[in-house]
Each structure stands twice: as C-alpha cells, then as structure tokens.
Design brief:
It is a single chain. By secondary structure, the protein is an alpha/beta fold. It folds into 4 domains: 4-120, Response regulator (Rossmann fold); 130-239, no CATH class; 249-310; 324-511, Rossmann fold (3-Layer(aba) Sandwich), CATH 3.40.50.300. Helices cover 39% and strands 23% of the residues. It is built from 18 helices and 20 strands. It has a 7-stranded mixed sheet, with helices on both faces. It has a 6-stranded antiparallel sheet with strand order 6-11-7-8-9-10. A 5-stranded parallel sheet has the order 2-1-3-4-5, with helices on both faces. Helix 4 packs across helix 5 (142-151) and helix 5 (142-151) runs antiparallel to helix 7.
Length: 513
C-alpha cells in the first residue's frame, strides 16, 4: 500500500536520493527545506512517516516531532531522524540513523517503521476494546507497548514471558494506572531496575489485563522519562556490549581490602561492598539495586583500574552472529520453522534459494556473503569453481540459537524450469540476483520469478549487484514496478570503500519471517 513520506532536510541532494529510494518502493514523497515549512506541510497533508534531519533550521527535527505529536491530527505520524541523539525524544515509535546513512538504508528503515506502525495500530485497536491483549515482543517491542498504553491512559497489569539465551524462561510484570508505570518486577528484581531489565527483552510474549490497580506506586519517575532513560541505557549497552563484563563471568578481587578506594560514588561503593559475597557477575548485578547497565559499567571501570579481574566465558561463539541477527529475528525464524510441524520436533535449518542469470554475478554475491559473520561458504563458491548448471548448496549462514540458513544455488536457465517450483517448496524465500545489464537480467529471471510466485506464500527478493562506478536510474526502476510488485529490491555494490555488512543485514532482515 502506498504511504506518504515527508522528507524534511535542507540537504537537497540527500533529500532527493532518499525520495528516489522511497519512490522505488512505491511510496509518495514530498519535501520541506526547514522545520517551519515541514510543520506547515504536515498539518496540510498528514504524512505517514517524516524523514527529518535533526539539525533543521527554524524548528529542529526533534522539536518538530514534539509539536506534531501534540496535535491530535498528526499524532500518529512516525519519524525517522537523520542525526545523533534523536532516539525516543520525538516519540516511542521513531527511529534514527546517522546523517551519512545510504538512501536505500533510510528507505528500508521507513518501511520498517511503517510495518511497526501497522502492528502497533492492531494492538491499539485490541487495547481500546477494554479486554485482555496478547502479543509477541518480537512484533512490538515493550518500549512501544508502554508508550501506547501511556498515550491511551490504560490501567491494568502487563505480564511478560521471555527466554534467556541459554533457553531458560523468564517472567516479569508491570503495573500501570492511567498509563503511568507504578511498579515492575523481573524475577527477584523490582522497581526501576526491573523495568529497565524488561525493556531490554527482545524475545517473548506479553498479556495485558485491564483491572484496577490499588497498590501504592513503587516507581515515581514519570513514565516518559523512564522510557527515555531505558532506551538510552539499551543503546549504550548495545554499543559497548563487547567491552562490558559477561553476565556469566567470574569476578576476582586483585587488591587487598584495605587498598579499596574510599569516598567514591554511591554506586561504586555499593558494588565494592558486594564483591566480598558475590563471585559471579550475574549474582552481583542481581544483588545491586542500581540498573544492570550502570552496574556493568562500574565493574568495567574497576577492571580497567586493575581493582578486579573479570574472567569471561570460554565459549564466545555466536557473538559475531548476534551482531547480524537480533533475538526477535532468531525467535521468529524458530517459530516459522516450527509452524505446522509436530510438537516436540526442533527443525534447525531454513532453506533460502539463490538464482542468478550468470555465474559472474553469483561469484560476486558469494564473495560478499563470505565476509558475513557466521557464513560458511561451500568450497566451489569460495574459489569460484562452481558451474552455472549446478544445483548445489552455496553455503550455510549461522543465525543463532542453533539455527541456520542453508543457501541453495539453483540455475536460472529455462532448461531447469521443472525444478524451480519444486525447489521453492518450503523455502523461506528466493533471492533473484541481477547483474550486468539489469533489464536483461530481469528478463532472464522473469520466468523463474513467475514460476516460484505461483506457490502459496512464496517470497521473492531482487538483489541488484552494481559494478564499480555503475549507477542506476531509480526513476526507471520505479516505472518498471514489475520488479517490486511481489518482492523487494536491494542494491549491493560489488566494490565499495564501505563495508557491505549493513546492506546485507538490511536485506537479511527483510528475508526473515
């Protein structure tokens, strides 16, 4: 469905690139050069998403979001900020990207925000009916859910169930009155510490039950401020994750007790006092009343000062993979694999077909894939020694939690037409690689796409590989919407100074169920 995208940016060249990328995905776009013009435009024609530079003149991007959020007519508009320190300041349903983000990445984030809005709207309709609302945290993050209940002034109890990385179940609960968070618990942890821990969950389910809440408030901080701080801590945690102590790590004091620093910050003093009775990071974090992230940062600082030593777990496998796929993506893939299968079975591989019009394009694509964390290419695709008519595994990509994507190379030659539909049976999707002349490549692969799309719930994705210096007329692509009618289009540069990881991550995120 076509959505309206307002691009508020004084950088005309960047705005045109973003508009072209959004138009290629079927959206209508219009421009504003400063915040005042964007405000006037949005009030006249309400946009679905506003792509706004944070440093807009007259009214900056964050202030623009606050003004539109306060207006009942435009309060549902979502924002994609281009700039730092944006995040939730404009609203709980927004996203942010660096100013240098590629136009295709901005367009992909716009679509992600639109998908999220559709899920939030569905939950909002359920919540408005004043009965129990259930759903998945993989579909609507807890931050957005609490923002929704806060806006609608809901009263009741939100019960949560998550899963630890090792497979153990976690439970938590949040009580709300008139949309304000009154209390939270996560296992033995309560209060703001528990809320911040729950906000970090990306995997699990929720159930909201409307009911009177008579218990006195244990959390007094305004809900909006809580959500802002929670998201800030999560962002910082994700940014520094590799440097922070592992929760399963062991702590060892490296100095005599008499040599411990005095007159320190209350949090540091609390952590130092707990060192005598807790040797595992997780146990100390649970025992300390301060938020998890702040405790871990304190342990990191003490380790850097050689006051303590933290021994990390031996098994660090999966850390690189975790940076490629989110927990919710892993969970959705597991749910997709389990659908329709007997209870108790645990399938671990999803099939992803790769079809190309020529071997050179396949070779370039395999080389890009080879740089992904967790990717294990088959020897013929490592050396380029495969043949165009090979029906063979291309490689396996580890997803996480024991799951993997098996990439299967399927010939695009019409002599293999009887194979196409059969190979697509049960596949997560099909990647159609376009290289060289895009028009010629699309024409060659059109029969493949047509045959595969006849299968129920088949999903196809066009991946266009651009040679060094090659440019694509996005307007031409927009006119030839056959390329996008039932699939998605991704542009990958074969040779680029920038790492292709972000583009490939965006592509794989769309491939995930």
């Amino acid at each position: 469905m076509t959505s309206a995208i307002l691009i508020a940016d004084a950088n005309g060249a960047r705005a045109r690139r973003v508009a072209a990328a959004c138009a290629a995905r079927g959206h209508s776009t219009w421009f504003a050069r400063n915040g005042a013009e964007a405000l006037e435009t949005a009030l006249a024609d309400v946009p679905d998403v506003v792509v706004a530079a944070v440093d807009l003149a007259l009214i900056d991007g964050v202030k623009l979001a606050e003004i539109l959020r306060a207006n009942p007519r435009t309060r549902e508009a979502r924002f994609v900020f281009l700039g730092r320190e944006a995040g939730l300041r404009g609203g709980g349903f927004d996203a942010s990207l660096p100013p240098s983000a590629a136009a295709e990445d901005v367009a992909a984030r716009v679509e992600s925000v639109l998908d999220q809005r559709a899920r939030v709207d569905a939950v909002e309709r359920e919540a408005a009916a004043d009965h129990e609302v259930q759903g998945s945290l993989g579909q609507i993050p807890l931050t957005d859910l609490l923002q929704l209940f806060h806006m609608n002034r809901r009263t009741g109890t939100l019960e949560l169930q998550g899963r630890e990385p090792g497979g153990g179940e976690e439970r938590g609960a949040i009580s709300l009155r008139d949309g304000n968070v009154l209390g939270a618990n996560a296992g033995r942890v309560q209060g703001e510490k528990a809320l911040f821990r729950l906000l970090a969950w990306r995997d699990g389910s929720f159930a909201f039950t409307p009911r009177p809440v008579s218990a006195p408030a244990k959390i007094l901080t305004p809900t909006r401020a809580l959500l802002l701080e929670g998201v800030r801590q999560i962002d910082e945690w994700n940014r520094l994750r590799e440097r922070l102590p592992a929760m399963e790590g062991q702590i060892r004091l490296q100095v005599d007790a008499e040599a411990l620093p005095k007159g320190v910050h209350p949090l540091t003093e609390e952590v130092l006092g707990l060192l005598a009775s807790h040797e595992r990071v997780r146990d100390l974090v649970d025992a300390c009343p301060w938020p998890d992230y702040q405790v871990l940062r304190t342990l990191q600082a003490l380790a850097e000062r050689k006051i303590i030593a933290v021994q990390r777990r031996e098994d660090t496998g999966g850390l690189a993979v975790a940076s490629l796929f989110t927990n919710s993506q892993v969970r959705r893939l597991r749910d997709w694999l389990q659908a329709g299968r007997p209870r108790g079975s645990r399938p671990t591989e999803a099939k992803l077909l790769v079809v190309s019009a020529d071997t050179a394009t396949t070779r370039d694509f395999a080389r890009l894939l080879g740089g992904l964390p967790g990717m294990d290419l088959e020897p013929p695709f490592q050396t380029g020694g495969f043949r165009a008519d090979d029906v063979t595994p291309l490689g396996r990509l580890a997803v996480g939690d024991g799951l993997a994507l098996d990439l299967i190379h399927v010939p695009g030659d019409e002599a293999f037409a009887p194979l196409w539909a059969a190979a697509a049976q049960g596949a997560l999707g099909t990647l159609l690689l376009l290289g060289g002349d895009p028009a010629e490549a699309e024409a060659q692969l059109a029969p493949v796409a047509l045959a595969i799309r006849k299968r129920p719930r088949a999903r196809t994705f066009h991946v266009m590989l651009l040679a060094k210096g090659q440019r694509v007329d996005v307007r031409e692509l927009h006119e030839r919407l056959s390329l996008l009618d039932e699939g998605s289009l991704f542009l990958l540069k074969v040779e680029s100074e920038r790492s292709p990881l972000d583009r490939l991550r965006t592509m794989l995120a769309r491939v995930m169920p």
